[in-house]
Amino acid sequence: MNTHYAYKPANVGRWLIWSLFALVLAGAPHIFTSGLGTTVLTQMGIAIIACLSYNILLGQGGMLSFGHAVYTGLGAFLTMHALNRIGEGLPLPVSLLPLVGGLAGIGFAVLFGYVSTRKSGTTFAMITLGLGELVFALSLMIPEFFGGEGGVSGTRLVGPVRAGISFGPPLQVYYLIAVYTFLSVAAMFAFTRTPLGRMLNAVRDNPERVEFVGYNTRMIRYIAFILAGFFAGIAGGLGALNFEIVTAEVVGTARSGAYLLFTFLGGATFFFGPIIGGILMVLAFVLLSEFTKAWLLYLGLIFIFMVMYAPGGIASLIMMNLRLAKYGRLRQIWVSYLGLGMCAMVVLTGAAVLIEMVYHLQLGSAVGPQLQFLGLSFNAGDMNSWFGAVFVLLTGLGLFELLRRQFLQEWSDIQERIEEETKRRDLL
User: Fold this and answer.
1) Among 10, 172, 327, 407, which is 20 to 30 Å from 334 by CA?
2) Which helix (H) or strand (E) holds 371?
3) DSSP per-residue letters across 147-206
4) 135 shares a domain with 237
């Protein structure tokens, strides 16, 4: 009886989280009603599935892959070809086309995973990189399948219209993607609770011990690889339906790198981390790229900053602070958080001004040395602007480092008090 009631609150909380997730997916387009809002939300759903599928490899299995875009991309190409066949009479509903992408992801994961999962660690990463480059090269050599430089295009307005749903309006496409997003996220979460999911974590942490107790670590990695390929293919199929065109870019190394970068930024060690990463990925690709030409450089700097100061990603920061809030200690460090945030903004401002001036000199010098940034005017040809930006950057870095050391001391003291309270409660 005690065991039953011990798990009941956790189960209730889990149901509340899933209900809230479904409610957010259903209500988001009614809050962000603009065309841009629907477009961004649609791409977020696709990115969430792709990043979570990648995290089956990276976060749960410890497999660093540089070729995950192969499975999203090939799933997208097969989906687009199936979409065109529907227009020629193939009796397949458009709503099931993402499963075609998923099956394509399984097929190619069975083929490529048999080779790549025979090794682990750095060797696995290099094999996936080579396979990714191979597929990208083939995409330019086989125009009959990949469509050459123009790619393969089609229209989702094919097949019979049922209940007024033609998948022509973007809102209908969004809800199709939302359904697949919810089901895919739920399925991948369920996988983490299966014995195979637990063994995959064990292979990540201690493969020698797993081999010692009688399990085949290579087969566990292989099955996980195939499962990741399935969900990656679903994400690719949804992307094909959304954009109605697939080009060689979707199987490129840059796309694989994006999955790696944003899964890491979100937090690969927590299940909800890649969800955050997928959201950030779309915001960077769709919104940040509209504000500055140097958006890729900003992403690189953010990645370096996270590796140095928060290697667990955003999810780890959230969980650490939730633990402090649970013990009522969060209010003790909010002033330090405020100071660190302000110093980080100073550093970001100085770095951004330097980056924008460099880009202006390289790409916009024809329009003169003056540029507008953050509502202010800067002269890229004036040394005072450069000196001021460097001064702001160095001052922010110095203050940030001083406050960070003080914060780490406060954090250490709070953790010691929490440990003491925990031991005291256990004794009682």
Assistant:
1) 10
2) strand 370-373
3) -GGG-EE--S--S--BTTB-S-SHHHHHHHHHHHHHHHHHHHHHHHTSHHHHHHHHHHH-
4) yes
Domain-embedded: residue 342? yes
Q: Which of 265, 284, 313 is the last residue in one of the domains? A: 313
Most confident segment among 6-15, 174-183, 293-302: 174-183
CB 241 within 8 A of CB 75: no
Our CA angle for 280, 284, 290, nearest 5°, is 150
Q: What is the domain count for the chain?
A: 2
Residue 397 included in any domain: yes
Collect all residues with Cβ–Cβ distance below 8 Å to 316 and sequence separation of at least 6: 267, 269, 270, 273, 310
How far is it, in rounded angstroms, from Cα 211 to Cα 231? 28
Same domain, 228 and 132: yes
| Residue 20: pLDDT band with limits 50, 70, 90 | very high
Residue with tokens 């709070």: 414
- Which domain range does residue 266 map to? 32-313
Q: How far apart are CA 191 and CA 60, in angstroms?
A: 10
pLDDT higher than 70, residue 10: no
Residue with tokens 């064990």: 202
Query: Do 360 and 299 share a domain, yes or no?
Result: no
**DSSP secondary structure letter of residue 226:** H
Q: 351-375, pLDDT tens digit by residue?
A: 888 888 888 777 765 667 777 777 7
**Domain harbouring 191, CATH code:** 1.10.3470
Is the domain of 347 the same as that of 380? yes
One DSSP character per residue, 287-314 reads IIHHH-TTHHHHHHHHHHHHHHH-TTHH
Cβ(231)–Cβ(102) below 8 Å? yes
pTM, two decimals, is 0.90
Rounded to whole angstroms, how far apart are CA atoms 401 and 58? Answer: 31
Question: Crossing angle, helix 2-31 and helix 35-55, to 10 degrees?
Answer: 140
Asked, for residue 4, whether it belongs to a domain, the answer is no
CA distance 2 to 5: 5
In this structure, the answer to whether residues 202 and 344 fall within a common structural domain is no
Give me the phi and psi of 152, to 5 degrees please: -115, 130
Q: Is the dihedral of CA 404, 406, 412, 413 positive or negative?
A: negative
Task: Confirm if 253 and 86 have CB atoms less than 8 A apart.
Answer: no
Q: Collapsing DSSP states into helix, strand and coil, what is residue 73?
A: helix
